[in-house]
Amino acid sequence: MVDLCNQQMELPFKEEYAALIRKTVEATLSLFDVKNPMVTIAIVDDGRIHELNLRYRGIDRPTDVLSFAAREGMLLAQPGKREYLGDIAISLPTAMRQGEEYGHGIRRELAFLTAHGMLHLLGYDHMAPEEEKEMFALQEEIMEKMGLPRAGK
């Protein structure tokens, strides 16, 4: 179950975005055979994600996505077991800007950020170069699976 809540009023949050985010959660979880998870996703503005980034990470600036895993560790979700994985916050204004900057638009950017957040909830990280490479490859696999390849591909 995905509890999705638009908490920002700066930009319109279309139903197609909500459907895309839910589809991305499903596509990510299908890679790991995780069924029926509980995940909360908040769509926020830059001010709110800045507050969260400062409060929980000590970083005094906005970011694109933050994940708050219910538990720490690699792939804690057990196949076939309903489990609360955690919360994700995505800044819609930042996603819009980045989608334009990268030349692939808001749909791919929202899906990419959702996949990124989900991988964090599943225990992946990108602190070391080899972890970053593995996580990026998984994100790209999810994007390809959803028909959202990188611009120019």
Describe this structure in words.
The protein is an alpha/beta fold and 153 residues long. The chain has one domain (2-145): Collagenase (Catalytic Domain) (3-Layer(aba) Sandwich), CATH 3.40.390. The chain is 48% helix and 16% strand. The protein has five helices and four strands, in the order βαβαββααα. Strands 1-2-4-3 form a four-stranded mixed beta sheet. α1 packs across α4 (105-121), α3 packs across α4 and α4 (105-121) packs across α5. The protein is globular and about 35 Å long.
First-last Cα distance: 32 Å
Largest sheet: 4 strands, mixed
> What is the CATH architecture term?
3-Layer(aba) Sandwich
* Count of alpha/pi helices: 5
Which series of helices and strands comes N to C?
EHEHEEHHH
**Tally of discrete structural domains:** 1
Return residue spans where pLDDT drops below 50 for at least 5 consecutive residues. none
The rounded Rg comes to 15 Å
